[in-house]
Amino acid sequence: MISNERPSPFGRRPYQSNSYGQPKPPVQEDTLKTDRIQIERKSFMFTLKENPRGRFLRITEDVGGRRDNIIIPATGLDEFKKILDEMVKASTEIPEKKEGQEGQP
């Protein structure tokens, strides 16, 4: 333990391994549906999965071999879609700024 760390009253931290120094075993995940899209030079993979804690959507962005993930619990997918639809609508309704127009309404 680093000298300025104190034991937590809530037990060990989730990112620490168990007392034997081994990581937690992986959780069994079942893939329910997968789809992929390519937008410019980015590839997006959408994977609907299920594990003992519930269903979730994993969105993986792959740009030149570098991958980033976000995970959305299935309980939040309707709200996620609502906001995404609003962003798509705003993107088509709000005119793009051209160079030199930063100060113009």
Commentary on this structure:
16% of the residues lie in helices and 36% in strands. It is an alpha+beta fold and 105 residues long. Strands 1-2-3-4 form a 4-stranded antiparallel sheet, with no helix packed on it. The protein starts with 29 loop residues before the first strand and ends in a 12-residue tail after the last helix.
Question: TL;DR?
Answer:
This protein is α+β, with helices and mostly antiparallel strands and 105 residues long.
Helices, by number, come to: 1
Low-confidence stretches: none
Give a short account of the largest sheet: 4 strands, antiparallel
Kindly report how far apart the N and C termini lie: 56 Å
Strand content: 35-45%
Give the proportion of residues in helices. 10-25%
Strand tally: 4
Order the strands across the largest sheet as they lie in space.
1-2-3-4
Query: How confident is the prediction overall: mean pLDDT?
Result: 85
Shape assignment: extended
Order of helix and strand elements from N to C terminus: EEEEH
What class do helices, strands and sheet pairing give? alpha+beta
Properties at a glance:
single chain; 105 residues; alpha+beta; four-stranded antiparallel sheet; 1 helix; 4 strands
Strand and helix map with partners:
Layout: E1 30-39, E2 42-51, E3 54-63, E4 66-73, H1 77-93
Antiparallel strand pairs: 1-2, 2-3, 3-4
